[in-house]
Amino acid sequence: MRSMRASWGLRLTAPLVTLGLLGTMSVSAFGSSTAVDSSEVTHAKAVAATVFASADPKAAYSALSAADRTAFDMLEQPTALHTATTATKIDAKLLTAQQAVSPAYVGCWAMAADDYASDALGLTLYEYGQTTDVCVGSAGSVYQIDVYNVWNHIDMAGWRFDHSDPATSNVGWEGRGLAKFLFILGSGGWDIQNDNPCLQLRLNADGHSSLVTESCNLS
Question: What is the pTM for the complete model shown?
């Protein structure tokens, strides 16, 4: 699964955020909800901007009050990943008349999925995604797997993208495409945290069954 190295402890978070009334955000987590005042978000962003604008961000963070440190951590620390519950089917060749009679699928098909990390305030820190394509031969086995359209987007100041590593695994009845990412929180030579999320698509040789997972394990 996902690995992280951080200079602070992890907090629980909420995976769904909707804008509420009167300058608040309603944050729902597994059926519960709390309200985060927009002034709290504004304050946290101001604290983070001050830290990252400093010539010595590490010293600036150390000099923060306990309350401001908490605000910084809540803003910048990832606390949850949000994988797309339904991947998008990109392409599937139409079945021929012979294939329509037979349950066997022959052709290539692809699916795309995306994910993002959020903080304790329900704000998005970074986003990423990938597309996996598999080709199935007449013997009913996968013979080719490609991972492409690997992308990322940074949403929160202080985070940066370092690199991504695609990988594949062919187990015959299924093609597995993986993209592993490295995002880094830090500034001015001070790297606070490395985050290594993975996004994996498993496409079956039947031409329609699939699985989206955050697992980094292709086996």
Answer: 0.75
